[in-house]
Write a structure and sequence with these properties.
The protein is mainly alpha-helical. It has one domain (4-70). Helix content is 42%, strand content 0%. The chain contains three helices and no strands. It has helices at residues 4-17, 37-50, 67-70. The longest helix has 14 residues, at 4-17.
Length: 77
């Protein structure tokens, strides 16, 4: 992941901010393209996984999916 320490800090803040009311879903979104949604989502998923959290990451960008490129996995239709 890029900037591992910053994403680890973000993961810790998210976890500690929801301890009173646990959340099961986080949504990373933006209004325009190329703002870093996939970068933030993928790095946060990796960091949370390393912290022992269960993570499912969904790329809902049907026009320009990129998570398969980040994780170097096949792009299936």
């Amino acid at each position: 992941p890029h900037r591992t320490e910053e994403f680890r800090a973000l993961g810790i803040k998210l976890i500690s901010s929801v301890q009173a009311r646990p959340r099961k879903v986080f949504l990373i979104t933006s209004a325009t393209e190329k703002e870093g949604k996939s970068t933030v989502a993928s790095n946060l998923a990796v960091v949370l996984g390393k912290m022992g959290k269960k993570v499912a990451l969904l790329d809902a960008d049907l026009k320009n999916p990129t998570l398969h490129e980040i994780f170097k996995t096949p792009d299936f239709p």
